[in-house]
Design goal:
By secondary structure, the protein is mostly beta strands. The protein has two helices and seven strands, in the order ααβββββββ. The chain has a domain of about 90 residues: Thrombin, subunit H, CATH 2.40.10.
Length: about 140
Amino acid sequence: MAKRFVLVDESEAEEKFATLELGPPYSEVAPEVPIETATGGLTPLRQTCTWKYIVSSSLYGPIFAEVEMRCRFVKQTKIIQDANSNEVVSTAFLRCLHNVKANDHIIYNSVEYPISSVDAITGIGGGIIEYEVRL
């Protein structure tokens, strides 16, 4: 139950405020974790997938590089708009900490999915917490 104070003058207010017990600073409760050891901003990243992105193009097509990353993969069917504003059916989405781009590919459980859209999830301070990717 909250306590109510009836204040008469400012000196009494300063006295009461000085005796309030405040919790520890936020940095002591939840210290900052380096991005390499983080489990994700909003969701735990307990799965592993491979991100294929285009490095360059050659006469025979694009050349891809692959990076293994932690993610959260969820099968979910939804009609979305891709990067070209076309309506497509998204079969899954994943959350990750890497800045993936549309038209890259994600390999999960030996199935390759093209990335349709990417949304950055921002925190209160405006910093990017993680990315939500529609496949």
